[in-house]
TrEMBL record, chain A:
Entry's family note: Belongs to the CPA3 antiporters (TC 2.A.63) subunit B family.
Domain Na+/H+ antiporter MnhB subunit-related protein, chain residue ranges per copy: 106-227
Organism: Streptomyces glomeratus
InterPro entries, A to Z: CPA3_antiporter_subunitB, MnhB
Keywords: Cell membrane, Membrane, Transmembrane, Transmembrane helix
Membrane topology label: Multi-pass membrane protein
Name of this protein: Na+/H+ antiporter MnhB subunit-related protein domain-containing protein
Localization per record: Cell membrane
Chief location of this protein within or outside the cell: membrane
Transmembrane annotation, as ranges: 67-85, 105-125, 131-150, 171-193, 213-234
UniProtKB/TrEMBL annotation, chain B:
A Pfam family matched in the record: Proton_antipo_M
Protein's name in the database: NADH:quinone oxidoreductase/Mrp antiporter transmembrane domain-containing protein
UniProt membrane topology term: Multi-pass membrane protein
Main location as per UniProt: membrane
Family to which this protein belongs: Belongs to the CPA3 antiporters (TC 2.A.63) subunit D family.
Keywords: Cell membrane, Membrane, Transmembrane, Transmembrane helix
Organism: Streptomyces glomeratus
Transmembrane segments: 83-101, 113-132, 138-155, 167-191, 211-230, 242-265, 285-304, 311-332, 338-360, 381-398, 418-439, 475-494, 514-538, 564-584
Origin: domain of life: Bacteria
């Protein structure tokens, strides 16, 4: 297809789609209205189970099955990355050379690393209480480790990041989510039913029944997954070379 | 029994998790056996639930059973079609895992479990999509099966074309998924619901359809039709199928693409079929036009391929067109026919891919011209390939033929001609390949034009070129063909399928799906046509060879992802235009 023809097709399709969107926008409910059928029900259900953070109640209780799917998508993507970015026959692994890091950067990274790591873990642990949760906290915790790459060098990062352990952690936490769900089936209620544990006291760490458990599983899964993802991409960029020495 | 529905998703996902957790220590045999065992167990569960699915099972995950008619949870619907699709997906996953037993050249170092784990995740995604009764949940599982499929397609990452094919597949399908997500958002804005039946009810209480309903319909259907590879959303499919490892092709062509058609059927029936949805005439117009277009383009592209995997991929596009025409008619009998057709097609198409994989691993080529006469020693494979071609053309008593006959009877008139022609051309193309490759008939074809994709110079997927074909690789296509035959000949099977499809779709309309004299005759006509086409192509190659007017059509398959994106946008607009008249007048 010539560039001209491609642009014509694109313009026609884009114009049609834009017209459709504009027309649809006039049918949308007005901004700032007070009718939120699902929101009202979700808040009600969340308070009934003493989960202070309604978003977590939606994620890990009311629609925990969606979260199972989303977690599996992340798990699949990580697995796919591991498979696709493997060291192929025509590639070899080189040792990355240490690089000089500016002193302020090094100091900053080393000071912030523990703070960022603890913040990530805090966000995971308080998922049922305050905004955040396993997905967000997991990303913060995982990226915190990579401050070491900025502050020191790749070999230092590799030392605190044994990929094998993280891969097993990724798979085990995904399995833990499923096993928690299956416990509901074994108990005779339903898959992922939040009826096994007491709901606890509202707005305390041990409230919400199985919400903190599923939240923790997701936190661990996401943290491990991000570490592996970044490791695979960094390996390609830093370590793996084509056989003729090109990166 | 309801509580067991989520296990169809949970079992394969847990299997994949365990495979990865222990995969670093497991030897390859153990990992592959475990994968087979898990997918077989899930298949058994799906079949057992399917046999007990009347009346349909429903399960609210997390025990969020509705109070006063509303719920915040997710509902799973275990009716005949949903569980039947899960069973089909599980059985095909098992078949391709068995076929790929010890198959790949090089599992990633210390990751022997990753290939079977990806297959299990793929299976879990398909099962979830099949049984969910919640639109957002359907989107999540749609994405899960896509993510697994992208990774599996690009598995042989050493080759540049594998990366290109998987990238085109990933970009176009993700684009479709975003369209679907926007459609879901529009429906949610209107109704505040996510369960399919509740959205439908919400639309109906709001009043007649308007621009928002149309936009939601078009966007959701775009996502599903991209997956179904309907023209002009189809460009990713030949590129992806040509490069994906053969066992993955069996799954992609056999069942994943068909999930798009299933989704269209499910979503229209539950969400848009009420007075507040899209009028029936509009859906009929949209799906019939797109279906005929898909059938015609698929059949033409199929006939002019010499890369055997691409040829089979294009024939899948052609048959999807026929499925869409059947589903678009909204007749209960046509639904029954399409269901049978889909079951029969899955077995035959997977078997044909399996046979092509044998050629690839034995000769390092899937080029029809280069392989001329070289397949002579593979007598068993030749018989299977010919049977597959005949079944694809609609020869009784295969399941495809029964399904086609039932649908043709329901549709009647000119659409029957489309059915007969498309199946004759696709079947004829497969028979032509069989005649040349396995029997060396006709003159050795000359080298084709430069813009053709030849299938020569492909790397075998096994460790070495096979000198002897392993029994598993021979047994799997044979069993798949036998399964497809069983769909047509097992007494009472068609009746059960028809009953469960109608129970779920058309409110329990009483129909009968069985062989009729007219159906058998039409099947024989299309088979005879296919044989004639194949014979003519082999004996007089120049008569049915490439024509200049087909060149622009074939050039559209450019491999340029930008082109494919432009076509997706144009397709969305086309879909909107086709469904517009009823909204304007209604």
């Amino acid at each position: 297809m010539t560039r001209r023809l491609r642009m014509i097709v694109l313009a026609l399709g884009g114009a049609g789609l834009a017209a459709l969107f504009v027309a649809a926008c006039f049918g949308m409910p007005g901004f700032g209205g007070d009718r939120h059928p699902y929101g009202d029900r979700a808040v009600h259900a969340s308070l009934a189970r003493r989960t202070a953070n309604t978003i977590s109640s939606v994620n890990f209780d009311q629609r925990a099955f969606d979260t199972l799917g989303e977690m599996s998508i992340l798990f699949t993507s990580v697995l796919g990355t591991v498979v696709l970015l493997r060291q192929t026959r025509d590639e070899k692994r080189g040792r990355p050379q240490p690089q000089e890091v500016a002193l302020p950067v090094r100091r900053y990274a080393l000071v912030v690393l523990p703070v960022a790591l603890v913040s990530g873990l805090y966000v995971i642990a308080h998922g049922q209480l305050s905004p955040g949760g396993g997905f967000q906290g997991g990303v913060v915790a995982a990226t915190a480790l990579h401050l070491l790459y900025l502050g020191a060098d790749y070999r230092a990062l590799e030392r605190i990041r044994p990929i094998g352990v993280f891969e097993v952690g990724d798979a085990l936490s995904a399995s833990a989510y499923l096993v928690t769900g299956l416990a509901g089936v074994l108990a005779g209620t339903a898959f992922l039913a939040n009826t096994l544990l007491p709901y606890g006291t509202f707005n305390t760490l041990s409230s919400g029944g199985t919400v903190p458990l599923l939240n923790a599983a997701i936190g661990m899964e996401v943290a491990c997954a991000i570490v592996i993802l970044l490791a695979r991409f960094l390996d390609q960029a830093v370590e793996i070379e084509e056989d003729n020495g090109k990166r | 029994m309801n509580h067991l529905l989520p296990l169809l998703v949970a079992a394969p996902l847990l299997g994949a998790g365990l495979l990865i957790a222990c995969g670093r220590r497991l030897p390859r045999v153990a990992a592959e056996s475990f994968g087979c065992a898990v997918s077989a167990g899930t298949a058994a569960l799906a079949i057992w639930l399917c046999l007990n699915s009347s009346p349909p099972l429903t399960e609210w995950v997390g025990a969020w059973t509705p109070r006063n008619g509303t719920s915040v949870g997710i509902v799973l619907v275990g009716d005949g079609p949903g569980l039947g699709m899960s069973a089909l997906a599980s059985l095909l996953t098992l078949a391709s895992l068995a076929y790929s037993w010890h198959y790949f050249d090089e599992p990633p170092r210390r990751h022997a479990g990753s290939y079977p784990a990806l297959m299990l995740l793929f299976q879990g995604g398909m099962c979830g999509f099949a049984i969910t009764g919640d639109l957002f949940n359907a989107f999540v599982f749609f994405e899960l099966m896509s993510a697994a499929a992208y990774a599996l397609t690009g598995y042989r990452v050493e080759e540049a074309k594998a990366v290109q094919g998987a990238l085109a597949f990933g970009v176009i399908n993700s684009l479709g998924a975003y369209a679907m997500l926007m459609g879901i958002a529009l429906l949610y804005a209107r109704t505040g619901e996510l369960a399919l039946t509740h959205i439908g009810r919400g639309l109906d209480t709001h009043g007649g359809p308007d621009a928002l309903t149309l936009a939601a319909f078009v966007l959701v259907l775009t996502g599903l039709l991209v997956k179904a590879a309907a023209v002009p959303f189809h460009f990713w499919l030949p590129d992806a199928h040509a490069v994906a490892p053969t066992p993955v092709c069996m799954l992609l062509s056999g069942v994943m693409v068909e999930f798009g058609v299933y989704g269209v059927w499910r979503v229209y029936g539950t969400v848009f079929s009420g007075p507040g949805g899209i009028p029936a005439a509009d859906l009929e117009r949209a799906l019939t036009v797109l279906g005929i277009l898909t059938g015609a383009v698929g059949a033409l592209m199929c006939w002019y391929q010499r890369h055997v995997k691409r040829l089979l991929a294009c024939s899948t596009i052609a048959h999807v067109g026929l499925f869409l025409v059947g589903v678009g008619s909204l007749l209960p009998e046509a639904d029954d026919g399409v269901a049978l057709y889909l079951l029969g097609h899955a077995g035959v198409k997977a078997a044909l891919f399996a046979c092509t994989g044998l050629l690839l691993d034995r000769f390092g080529s899937v080029d029809e011209h280069a392989l001329h006469g070289r397949g002579r020693p593979l007598r068993g494979v030749a018989v299977m390939f010919v049977l597959g071609g005949l079944a694809l053309a609609g020869m009784p008593p295969f399941g495809i033929s029964l399904g086609k006959a039932v649908t043709e009877e329901a549709l009647g008139g000119p659409l029957t001609v489309v059915y007969v022609l498309v199946s004759a051309v696709t079947g004829g193309a497969v028979l032509r390949v069989a005649a040349r490759v396995f029997y060396g008939l006709g003159p050795q074809p000359r080298v084709g034009s430069a813009c053709e994709t030849t299938g020569a110079g492909e790397e075998p997927e096994t460790r070495h070129r096979l000198s002897r074909i392993p029994d598993t690789m021979r047994a799997v296509p044979a069993l798949l063909l036998a399964g497809s035959l069983a769909v047509g000949v097992v007494p009472g099977f068609a009746r059960i399928v028809a009953r469960s499809v109608n129970e779920a779709g058309s409110g329990g309309a009483l129909t009968s799906a069985h062989w009729t004299a007219a159906g058998v005759l039409l099947g024989l006509v299309s088979t005879a046509l296919a044989l004639a086409l194949a014979a003519l192509a082999v004996t007089r190659p120049e008569l049915l060879g490439a024509r200049p007017w087909t060149l622009p059509l074939r050039r559209l398959q450019s491999g340029h992802i930008g082109d494919y994106v432009a076509w997706v946008l144009l397709g969305t607009t086309l879909l909107g235009a086709l469904a517009l008249p009823g909204i304007l007048t209604g």
